[in-house]
Amino acid sequence: MLTLRLERSRSRTGKHAARSLVLLVSESGEVVEARPRLYRRVKPLYSKGEAFEASFEVPPGWYLVYVWLVRNLRGHVKGYIEVYSRDAELLYRAVYRRLKLRRSRGDPRYAWIVRRVVEHLRLPVKNTNLGDEEGGR
């Protein structure tokens, strides 16, 4: 079981917003939204909206992917994407800033999972540096 924070909030003025979601990615590349086993309500980052602390169970042969994104006053989005194993071990982390996706920590063998999630979410990416052989776009 892995406990993560699910956030869907925005500032009082609406100029800032935070979103997070949890996805499951199979070894074959299939992406589905994860359903929490247990959850409890917690205080959100911004004043309007909601946040939960949720526990997830990862089936065998799947990876859990946690996506955290924040949008600012100018509409710029930044955040990170984390890949977890079935044993709740952080395998890979990539940061997303200025339309660039960059490896932060972890083994580059898991970069394909981040690429698959970005493709699924249709995040605009101009340049990637994930540490794998595919290189930038």
Structure description:
The protein is mainly β and 137 residues long. 8% of the residues lie in helices and 53% in strands. The protein has 1 helix and 10 strands, in the order βββββββββαβ. Strands 1, 2, 3, 4, 5, 6, 7, 8, 9 and 10 form a 10-stranded mixed beta sheet that branches. The radius of gyration is 15 Å and the shape is flat. The relative contact order is 0.18. The model has no long low-confidence stretch (mean pLDDT 94).
Q: Count the beta strands.
A: 10
Low-confidence stretches at least 5 residues in length (pLDDT < 50)?
Answer: none
C-alpha geometry: flat
**Element pattern in H and E:** EEEEEEEEEHE
Helices, by number, come to: 1
The main β sheet shows up as: 10 strands, mixed
Report the portion of residues in β strands. Answer: over 45%
Roughly how many Å apart are the termini?
35 Å
Give me the Rg, rounded: 15 Å
Helix content: under 10%
Concise overview:
The protein contains one helix and ten strands; from the N terminus they run βββββββββαβ. It has about 140 residues and is mainly beta.
